[in-house]
Structure formats: structure tokens, C-alpha cells
């Protein structure tokens, strides 16, 4: 019985010695390099166990393995024995375990870790952190997008651990965080040495639509496009190129955001200081059209000095036309200075003022009464618009189309594009209006006929029509109407039907109305006038002579 107990104790002690001497699988053990053969290191890990490890597992990315016979190294024991009776060991896994311990401590202490980028994967790069492989997102490589990461491959440099999960084997690192931190320190130092108004040299790093970023030696400043030159700059690339060294002035420094505003034009003389003296009002200068808008065109008088020609000041005759149809970009034009506002840095220019007012020219060349010819440009409900010299129009009102009848009745006889002759009746330069008359071409027939005909005159007319209200008569081609009540002094004789077309009648002119172009005629007025005249010459009603006696005496006298 005692012998059996001693044997059990012996076996337990033997088993305990095996457990103490034999390394545990899945752990990191120390071993000794006993040989190097065929690109592999043979390592004795104790208890007569040997294993093989490729030499590349002892090398850092981009470097040769530094290992020799007799070196003591740490390896990871994956299995105590394989099919060939050798231990399955890995230096890479040992390094990984060691690295994870080290990296977890650095992550907890928010310390930087050294590593090297050795591969490219989707969305970023792989980084060797001394045994552990981490992922470097593309957005975390640099403060700005990197087009070529070749120079960074295999280069040992610091990284910041952003996230790590040992169970899943995930580590995410950032190179950008390190650069931003060091850049912030450098930025603070550079900004501390700058002051507003200071002139410094810088290198153009980037050009955008709105300006350029200039490196001032570790810190970038923004040079806005409006601060590049006194003249208009459409795009920064017109005057700057990437990599160019330029002199700029510090306009503003924001201590909180570390933003720096720069300017180039501030180092040059302001051309506006001499604008008032150089460009007096009403003076004419040559300039170049730099920009065209819906409301006008900008004309550069000199570098840094631009003026606006408003659309209303572009042409005497072209109204409601887009400025682009009058001038073109880069065209050289003559303009007149209309107004200068130095505080707002504005110059108002006029294009049409450099040319004579076409209405003034027309008035000088075509006084009232002049006959002109032009094309019918437009036909409206109130008259015709006739195209004249220098692209101006004159208007023939309906009332000036014909002497007889209504203008509404004859305007339909005209066609657009037809050539028409007319007489100038009025020119209003201020209102830019020209009045024309077609009916005045042959003179005024009424004025010609009525010339010499006065109120009280006796004229002979011819009956042209018989109507219930009177008779229509003609006097040298001019129509008039004698009302029934004016046909005779005797009421019984005031009958239109007693006359016939073609009868010749002596009538008295009672009215000459140039406005309505009518003669007032009356037989009754003629008879009354004749009676009055006879009474005055041959007697009066008081002498006892009858009217027949008086008229008989008058007739004998006439005979």
C-alpha cells in the first residue's frame, strides 16, 4: 500500500515537472537561435523542442533581418509538435502580442506610436506598428488630400491611435493628427511674429475661384481676389501661379481662429487718389469694356479705375436694348465722365454723350416745313412711325394723314416698309419727338381757298346735293353746307327742294373756321345785308317809301 502511494506521488511530481519545464501552447516563450538554414532560423525553445521561423519575420518593413546564431528571441508557441516532430512557432505573432500590450498602454496614455506605412488597401493604407498592423484611412494621411503616397511608404514616423479593438484585432491610426498638432504649434509661433500691416514674402500654395492660399512659412493666409490688384481680376490665375513667391501685406489676423487675411494691392499706390483730378466732369476719355451686365457696361479707364456706363446712357436711339448689343467685351470706346463718387469709388460714364444728340442734328438740318422721306417702321392705332436719319423716328398722327375724311379710314392704305414722304411740323429735342404731316405735302387747300375770303364776303357757290336740312355747295373744290334756315329771308322760301344740283347761288360768308376747315354760308344773311344797304342808299322806312320802291330804284341804279 505504501509502495502504491509513493508511486502516485512520484507520478504527480513528474507531471508537475513536465508542466513547469514544458512551455504552454498559445503563449510567448523565449528561445535560442541554434542555426540559420535556407532562409529560416532554427530556434530551441526548451525541453528539447525546436522550431523554424522565416527570417523575414525578424525584419522590419523595408529592412534586412538582423539575427545571428546564439541570439535569444521571443516567439509565440502555436503548437508543441507538428507532423515532423517540430514545435510550431512564430516570431510575428510574438511581436504582435508584445505590440498589442505596448499599444494598449500608449492608447490609454494618449501617446504617439512609431510605425511605417507598408501597403495600400481600399480606403487607405496599412501601417506596421512594430508587430501589429493598423489601418490608416486616406483622410488621415495628411491635412490635405495626398495624390501620391509613394514618398511616405516604408518611412518610420509617428502616428496617433484613434481607435483599437484587441478582440477583433482592429487598430485605426492617424498621421494627420500629428501633423495638425505640430502645425498648430508652428502656426502659433509664426502668427506670434506677424502683425497687421506688415509686408512679408509668401509662396502661392493653392488657387481657387475666390482667391489664393499663401504659405508664410508654416502658416497659410488667404489672399482674396479683390485684394490682388486695384483693377478687376476675373480669376486669380490671371496674375498668380502655384509655387510663385510673392510679397503681400498682412491685412487682418484673427487670434482665435488663426486666420490671416492678406493683400497685394495694399502695397501699391491707390489710383483712386488721383481720379478726381485726372478725370474731371464732362471730360472725354478712352477706355476698355471689361464687363457687360443687364444694367450696363463697365469700362476700365486705367488699371484699378473702372466706371459704369448705365444702359440709359449708352445710346440716344436704342432704348430697352441689352448693353451687349451695343458694345462688346474688350472693345475700346470713348466715354464722358458724368459723375464721380470718391467715397464709394464709383465713376458714372456716358457713351451717348460723346456723340451729338440726333434730335438736335435733325432740328438743325430739317427746320419746320422741310419735306423728308422715310420708311414706315410701325403702324399703331394713333398714327405712323417713320424712320429718319441717324436711327430716329418721326410720327404722323392720324389727324395729319388727310385733309378730307378721317385718318382712321386712310391709315389702312399704308404698309410697313413702305417709303413715305412727309413734312416736318414740329421738333421737340427735349422730349425727343418729331411730328410729321403727310397731308401738308400739297399745302393746305382750305388755306388756299379761304385766302382772301373774309367774313361778310359775297361768293358764288354751286349746289352739289339737296338734303332735308339744307343744301350742300361747292366753292372752288371746298365743300360747305347751307342750313335750311339760311336758304332765304322769307320763311316760306326756306325750302331745299326749290334748288337743283348745279344751281349757282350768291351767298354771304358768315364764318371762316380754320380749325374745323369750314366756311359758314347763308343766303338769308346776303338778302338781309342787301336790304340794309339799299335802305341806306335809297331811303328809309320813315320816308314812306315801300321796300319794293326802294329795291326798284336800286335795280334801276344797277342797270
From TrEMBL:
Gene Ontology annotations for the cellular component aspect, listed alphabetically: cytosolic small ribosomal subunit
Keyword RNA-binding: yes
InterPro entries: NA-bd_OB-fold, Ribos_protein_bS1-like, Ribosomal_bS1, Ribosomal_protein_S1-like, S1_domain
Residues in S1 motif domain copies: 26-92, 110-176, 197-265, 282-352, 369-439, 456-524
Molecular-function GO terms, alphabetical: mRNA binding; structural constituent of ribosome
Keywords (A to Z) from UniProt: Repeat, Ribonucleoprotein, Ribosomal protein, RNA-binding
Pfam families per UniProt: S1
Gene3D superfamilies xrefs: Nucleic acid-binding proteins
NCBIfam families: PRK06299.1-2 (NF004952), PRK06299.1-5 (NF004955), rpsA (TIGR00717)
Family: Belongs to the bacterial ribosomal protein bS1 family.
Name this protein carries in UniProt: 30S ribosomal protein S1
UniProt organism field: Halocynthiibacter styelae
Originating gene: rpsA
Amino acid at each position: 500500500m505504501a509502495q502504491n502511494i509513493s508511486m502516485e506521488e512520484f507520478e504527480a511530481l513528474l507531471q508537475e515537472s513536465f508542466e513547469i519545464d514544458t512551455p504552454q501552447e498559445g503563449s510567448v516563450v523565449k528561445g535560442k537561435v541554434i542555426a540559420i538554414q535556407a532562409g529560416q532560423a532554427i530556434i530551441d525553445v526548451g525541453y528539447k523542442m525546436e522550431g523554424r521561423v522565416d527570417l523575414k519575420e525578424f525584419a522590419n518593413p523595408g529592412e534586412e533581418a538582423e539575427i545571428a546564431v546564439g541570439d535569444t528571441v521571443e516567439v509565440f508557441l502555436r503548437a508543441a509538435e507538428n507532423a515532423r516532430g517540430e514545435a510550431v512557432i512564430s516570431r510575428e505573432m510574438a511581436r504582435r502580442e508584445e505590440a498589442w500590450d505596448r499599444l494598449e498602454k500608449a492608447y490609454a496614455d494618449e501617446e504617439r506610436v512609431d510605425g511605417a506605412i507598408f501597403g495600400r488597401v481600399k480606403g487607405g493604407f496599412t501601417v506596421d506598428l512594430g508587430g501589429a498592423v493598423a489601418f490608416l484611412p486616406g483622410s488621415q494621411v495628411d491635412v490635405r488630400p495626398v495624390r501620391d503616397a509613394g514618398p511616405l511608404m516604408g518611412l518610420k514616423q509617428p502616428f496617433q491611435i484613434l481607435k483599437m479593438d484587441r478582440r477583433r484585432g482592429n487598430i485605426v491610426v492617424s498621421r494627420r493628427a500629428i501633423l495638425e498638432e505640430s502645425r498648430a504649434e508652428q502656426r502659433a509661433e509664426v502668427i506670434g511674429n506677424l502683425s497687421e500691416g506688415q509686408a512679408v514674402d509668401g509662396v502661392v500654395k493653392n488657387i481657387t475661384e475666390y482667391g489664393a492660399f499663401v504659405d508664410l512659412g508654416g502658416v497659410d493666409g488667404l489672399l482674396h481676389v479683390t485684394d490682388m490688384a486695384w483693377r478687376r481680376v476675373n480669376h486669380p490665375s490671371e496674375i498668380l501661379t502655384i509655387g510663385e513667391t510673392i510679397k503681400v501685406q498682412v491685412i487682418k489676423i484673427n487670434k482665435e481662429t488663426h486666420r490671416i487675411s492678406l493683400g497685394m494691392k495694399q502695397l501699391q499706390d491707390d489710383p483712386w487718389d488721383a481720379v478726381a483730378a485726372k478725370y474731371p466732369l464732362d471730360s472725354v476719355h478712352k477706355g476698355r469694356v471689361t464687363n457687360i451686365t443687364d444694367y450696363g457696361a463697365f469700362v476700365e479707364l486705367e488699371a484699378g479705375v473702372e466706371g459704369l456706363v448705365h444702359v440709359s446712357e449708352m445710346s440716344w436711339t436704342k432704348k430697352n436694348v441689352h448693353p451687349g448689343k451695343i458694345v462688346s467685351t474688350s472693345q475700346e470706346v470713348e466715354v464722358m465722365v458724368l459723375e464721380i463718387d470718391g467715397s464709394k469709388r464709383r465713376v458714372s460714364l456716358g457713351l451717348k454723350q460723346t456723340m451729338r444728340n440726333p434730335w438736335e442734328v435733325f432740328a438743325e438740318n430739317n427746320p419746320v416745313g422741310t419735306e423728308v422721306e422715310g420708311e414706315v417702321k410701325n403702324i399703331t392705332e394713333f398714327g405712323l412711325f417713320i424712320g429718319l436719319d441717324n436711327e430716329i423716328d418721326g410720327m404722323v398722327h392720324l389727324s395729319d394723314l388727310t385733309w378730307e375724311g378721317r385718318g382712321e379710314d386712310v391709315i389702312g392704305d399704308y404698309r410697313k416698309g413702305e417709303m413715305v414722304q412727309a413734312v416736318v411740323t414740329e421738333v421737340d429735342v427735349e422730349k425727343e419727338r418729331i411730328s410729321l404731316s403727310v397731308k401738308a405735302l400739297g399745302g393746305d387747300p382750305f388755306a388756299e381757298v379761304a385766302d382772301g375770303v373774309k367774313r361778310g364776303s359775297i361768293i358764288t357757290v354751286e349746289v352739289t346735293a339737296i338734303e332735308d336740312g339744307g343744301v350742300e355747295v361747292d366753292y372752288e373744290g371746298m365743300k360747305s353746307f347751307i342750313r335750311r334756315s339760311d336758304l332765304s329771308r322769307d320763311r316760306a322760301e326756306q325750302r331745299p327742294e326749290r334748288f337743283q344740283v348745279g344751281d349757282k347761288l350768291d351767298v354771304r360768308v358768315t364764318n371762316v373756321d380754320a380749325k374745323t376747315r369750314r366756311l359758314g354760308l347763308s343766303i338769308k344773311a346776303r338778302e338781309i345785308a342787301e336790304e340794309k344797304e339799299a335802305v341806306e342808299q335809297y331811303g328809309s322806312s320813315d320816308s314812306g317809301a315801300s321796300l319794293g320802291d326802294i329795291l326798284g330804284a336800286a335795280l334801276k341804279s344797277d342797270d
